[in-house]
Amino acid sequence: MRKIRRELTHQEPSVGVTARQLLARHSIVVGCVVFSAVMMIATFPAFVLAQPSCHGIHVTIPNVRNSAGNVACALFESPAGYPTEFLHSATNIVMMKARDSQERCHFLDISPGTYALAVIHDENVDGKLATNFLGIPTEGYGFSSGAKATMSAPSFEAARFSYNGQSLDLTIKLNY
Predict the structure, then answer these.
(1) Mind listing the pLDDT tens digit for each residue in 81-138?
(2) d(CA 93, CA 138)
(3) Please, where are the H alpha helices in 50-176?
């Protein structure tokens, strides 16, 4: 019996050391995992909130009057049909339901070149800019490069801008 106790007594310290070593290693691993998890959680918003820079023309329309109808953004690469014949002549058209006082149009995969933009707020959803009996628009409209409509719509040359194939952010305010 004493012999067995001595063997157990001699083994217990070695088992205790091994258990302590395992516990110490386990604590280090758990500490590293916890640290990694905390770092991931701390940096997660940066990954989620960071918007990738997409090549293309990104248009912000900051002053949409109401949520009636649609907002249409028409991108032209030549003066032909600019800006009135956008359904027939525009290179690209983005149309969306007006939902907020600020809308965004995105034109992706656009080749470098010279372009002009026309934006309308088609409140009555008839596919064209409504006017009164004098021909004055009753719906919102706007053009790139700050081009203004005086007695008629501005020319392509007045609204043109250069696009280099990278990411371009434009803001077009609507006139009502």
Answers:
(1) 999 898 899 999 999 999 999 999 999 999 999 999 999 999 999 988 999 999 899 9
(2) 21
(3) 86-89, 156-159
**Alpha carbons 18 and 25: distance in angstroms, whole number:** 10
> What is the distance between the alpha carbons of residues 108 and 60, in angstroms, rounded to a whole number?
14
Q: Is 78 helix (H, G, I), strand (E, B) or coil?
A: coil
Torsion of CA 128, 133, 139, 143, to 10 degrees: 70
- Asked if residue 32 has pLDDT above 80, the reply is no
Nearest to 144 by CA among 116, 121, 103: 116
- Cα distances (Å, whole numbers) of residue 100 to 7, 67, 103: 81, 6, 6
DSSP 99: -
Give the residue from 82, 93, 87, 105 showing the smallest Cα distance to 174: 105
> How many Cα atoms occupy the beta-carbon half-sphere of 128 within 13 Å?
7
pTM of structure: 0.69
